[in-house]
Design a protein that fits this description.
Helices cover about 60% and strands about 5% of the residues. The protein is mainly alpha-helical.
């Protein structure tokens, strides 16, 4: 079990992929189907209410009250499940801010309000066209709210492994680097690359301090040099063993 835990100051995946219109439409249709099923259920409940209350206004009021959550389905789901609806969960996509950080409720309200223009008023044509012809594949609501829809599918990349190229003539610096585990090294490498790409030197310093604490070192190397050396040293010893 890894004994090293690091959280970036932004706590986001920098290398996100913005999804196209196909996946978004499928997610929308899944949600629409669920709402259709809910509407049928409400209809049956409304019929049952008619046996209890004779007043048509009471029947209509109670039925409308039961159907009310469906009107706010998108807003509620995105708020409760971190930028996802059931359709988005199935498609493994999520709404985030343009910089990759989690959405705020204010972003979601703007997106939800503009669904009237993007989807309902012009039968989805505005939303489709803006997604197709914008660089970040944003519908009008996304552009106004400063959000994008990204893929959350796991992808295996070289940067997600513990492997590092080590020259034959390489001389290791830290002899006790084998105190770390493969999980530690994988986490160090992932955090190191995310911090480098985003220029997050605060996270780099936190990572370096934690690694030095585990290895009980006191190196004069800069943070990036130190972490890079630790990664190479670990690979040197593990590949040679």
């Amino acid at each position: 079990m890894s004994n090293l835990q690091i959280n970036t100051t932004q706590n986001v995946n920098i290398d996100y992929k913005i999804v196209g219109i196909g996946e978004r439409i499928i997610a929308f249709l899944i949600d629409a189907f669920l709402l259709y099923l809910y509407a049928i259920l409400v209809q049956y409940i409304g019929s049952a209410i008619g046996f209890v209350f004779d007043d048509s206004w009471t029947q209509m009021g109670l039925t409308s009250l039961i159907f009310l959550p469906a009107m706010f389905y998108s807003l509620l789901m995105h708020s409760l499940f971190n930028g996802r609806t059931v359709g988005k969960m199935v498609m493994k996509i999520r709404v985030v801010r343009v910089d990759g950080t989690p959405v705020h409720w204010s972003n979601l309200i703007v997106r939800w309000m503009l669904r009237f223009v993007d989807i309902w008023l012009f039968f989805g044509s505005v939303g489709i066209l803006t997604i197709l012809f914008t660089d970040k594949k944003q519908r009008l609501g996304d552009a106004a709210a400063g959000t994008v829809v990204i893929s959350t599918k796991n992808k295996v990349k070289v940067s997600h492994t513990i492997l590092e190229e080590v020259e034959e003539t390489y001389v290791p610096t830290f002899l006790n680097v084998t105190l770390l585990t493969d999980k530690d090294i994988r986490l160090i490498k992932e955090t190191y690359h995310i911090a480098m790409k985003s220029g997050d030197y605060k996270t780099m310093k936190v990572l370096r301090d934690k690694v030095e604490g585990l290895l009980n070192t006191n190196s004069d190397l800069y943070d990036t040099q130190y972490l890079n050396t630790v990664l190479k040293d670990y690979n040197f010893y593990t590949q040679k063993s």
